[in-house]
Amino acid sequence: MSDRYKSMIQNPIGQFLVKNLGLPNPPELRRYQGGALVDGPVLIGGEGLLTGALPGLLKASGIDATSVRADGRRYQGLVLDASGIDSAAGTVAIQEFFTPVLRSLANNAKVVVIGLLPERTDSIGAAIAQRGLEGFVRSLAKEIGANGSTANLVYVTPESKDAIGSTLGFLLSPKSAFVDGQVVRLGTTDLVEADSPADPAKPLTGKVALVTGASRGLGAAMARTLHRDGATIIGLDVPPLAEDLEHLMAELGGSSIICDITEQDAPEKIASSLGDGVDFVVHNAGITRDKRLKNMKSENWAKVVDISVGAPERITAHLLDHKLIRPGGRVIGISSIAGIAGNNGQTNYGTAKAGVIGFVQALAPKTAEAGITVNAIAPGFIETDMVKTMPLGIREAGRRLSSLSQGGQPVDVAEAIAWYCHPGSSAISGNVVRVCGQGFLGA
Ligand code: NAD
């Protein structure tokens, strides 16, 4: 759905009112349109696990980086390897790297800080400094959001550090336009090897993706984006949306499964439509049935929880038991900021979406041996049919109360799914990344 406020303030009168009344002024966010991942200079600095390796890792994603500052340059990306900082006093190196260049940030610039997983540090001083990076990144993101810029943190371990390439490519590019103030953890399971795609422009070539709820909204965007990256799509949706789904799958050269995922025989039905298996399973289907708890009906509680997490749990178990998710595979759940921060009138949905986090974090270590990662995306306010049912006041608050003062687009969530699916992302498992423009709810 469209953001009328954002369109209204684009003219000179709108901009005059915004300035004089102190109204929110959402920046224009640049999305990926193909071609190079980053189209401006990237400055790198710091000392730590990636010292010396960063330029090569970035080059592999087609990103040229320099550690030499030049006057008058506007940086599209800043990357600080802060993983070597091991004391509270040492954190001043963060300030010394960023302060002199922050006035030289281009619009829609991307800041990435690299740290060492705090639980892998070997002194209290290092734990202070490394955990401190989270507070730094989340605060900087709030300072630079007004021009569409974002800041994110990537924790690595000595074993997983070389698998950071796909994550840097994603976080430094416009593919991550609505990912802000987030923390990505690499190497929390034994899976640490990253593969390089034969064709970087189509990294998912030869892979098969099952996307549930694929006929519209976020699911349709996921199907399109995974297809753009080379995957063959199997879309799934309920019988009333069969025509929409089949239309989209015909456009993408994919196939359809028409079924309600909560039906008892859904796991078998899905398994029998997958041939010799799939690489990616994206459990996107979801519904809301909002009511305050005092007015909640049992059937609306049960339905919301079963669609979001009960059915995904049963379907995943069945596909894993029958070895229908291939090595190198990905299982992805869709959570929500309502599952992180809670939401008035959404006790059922909040339970379901927090349950998705429990699901991916419990499953991730179990599938590591089979080479399968399990992660979740928690969307914030994204412009789809689902948010049309919100009362206007809540809808406007959802849009404006974020560092980027606007809702996201379905493609923003889809790009994050494609990043999880990238062959280079095998060291990311058990993660929950919000695609929310650093929404202030539960941030
Ligand atoms: P949507 O209503 O536009 O699409 C949901 C899709 O899931 C529909 O195609 C629907 O038919 C399908 N579906 C529902 N129940 C199903 C079932 N039993 N079996 C098979 N398919 C079923 O919603 P959306 O906004 O695209 O949301 C997609 C996912 O993202 C959901 O899980 C939702 O909870 C989550 N989410 C959305 C937002 C947002 O702002 N739009 C925010 C947070 C989380």
From TrEMBL:
Belongs to the short-chain dehydrogenases/reductases (SDR) family. Signal peptide: none annotated. NCBIfam families: PRK08261.1. PANTHER family: 3-OXOACYL-(ACYL-CARRIER-PROTEIN) REDUCTASE (PTHR42879), 3-OXOACYL-[ACYL-CARRIER-PROTEIN] REDUCTASE FABG (PTHR42879:SF2). One of its GO terms (biological process) is monocarboxylic acid metabolic process. It comes from the Bacteria. This is 3-oxoacyl-ACP reductase. InterPro entries: KR_dom, NAD(P)-bd_dom_sf, Sc_DH/Rdtase_CS, SDR, SDR_fam. SUPFAM superfamilies: NAD(P)-binding Rossmann-fold domains. The lineage of its organism: Bacteria, Bacillati, Actinomycetota, Actinomycetes, Propionibacteriales. Coiled coil: none annotated. It comes from Aeromicrobium flavum. Residues 207-380 form the Ketoreductase domain.
